[in-house]
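Hi U.,

Before I forget, here's the chain from the pilot set. I'm dumping it here mostly so it's searchable later in email.
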Amino acid sequence: MPATVINKPFRMFTVKEVLPLCIISLAVGFAAYVMATAPATIPIHFSDSGQPNGWGSRDGLILVPLLIMAVVYLFATFYPMLPVAHSEQELKQISPYAYVIKTVLLALLLAFQVDIVSHLPTAKSGPAGQFQSLFVIVFILGITTACCLFLFRSVKNRAAASTRAGHRFLIIWVACAVGYLSGIPLIRAMLPEFTAAVRITAPPAIVLIALLPLCLLAMGLAIIIADGYSRSAGMGTPLIDAWVDKSPSWPVLKSFLFLSLVSALAVAVTTIGIDRVFFIPLLPAALSEGSGSTLWQDLITSLYGGIVEEVLLRYLLMSVIVVALRKACRFQATNNTLIWTAILASSFVFGVSHLPITAAIAPLTAPVVLRALLLNGIGGVLFGWLYWKKGLESSIVTHFMANVFGSIILSFS
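Structure:
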């Protein structure tokens, strides 16, 4: 039988809501105190030596975390009202995860707000200021790690009575954790510039350890949202569902594996060919010479793109766009026009998401931007089509293998 869609929210004002509401109250009180005591213009960017080289409004920097807090709280609290295809039993299984992630994100935003104040002109400097930054990083590490352990324990304790949604969440979440761990070399390479920009004095290793659990929490919330929207959009995770239901998985895998491998090879050959013929002559030396990483580093990092990017851009973004357009256009069912619009939109976002990394290597000239949008868009369209026709697992395998084939071809060319 199809899942019954729930159109009413859970009870909002329960005892458990005291904690997140207290965090928001502390943030509001703290913001009011800072706005009453800090100067109207404050430094918002710092040089490598720690000297301010950018200034901005105090009100904006203090109020933005409060705005994000409000969005996070309201969205996570009223999530059951959204147009998703969860049954009441599935919502009860997933709601504890959403509550924990919501509470921890609010606590992290409060810590971020406190850390901002530590960098104001009136804040302490020297060893005391360094200790405060280190404390914030350790606080982030501790609270996010505790949340991750809670989620694992919660799923383990409910294993016998767990629903398909709970098992599905755990499998995708663990896969994203593997993807993030594979991206550590890339994150480590960007850490020096990041820590200098936000004036974090903690050791880079501590920053790296603290960022990973935070990313996992954000991915957990994204998976929870995407799970319902993907079903409502008529797409899903057929291979994972077969594992959860303990039904034969080989027929499902066989239905898309060959197509995914051929598609991945086609994407790799096509994008490298277009790049060599049209873009390489127009690129700065920093881009045309390649990243300088080894083949093994590229192969390991490919897991990040294959898993994390597909979950965010196809499983989440593409599904949300389909459902949002269907509601906006008042269509009774999903049609091909809606899906192709979502495929193109998510592919465009996929291309744009590569621009920040590109900008760190070379200036964003017109050929550089066009190259990022076109080459990533070619893969994005194919990945979106496979997600629509074959499921999330097919787009993940295709994206991962396209990166692998591309790395192998470039290493021997």
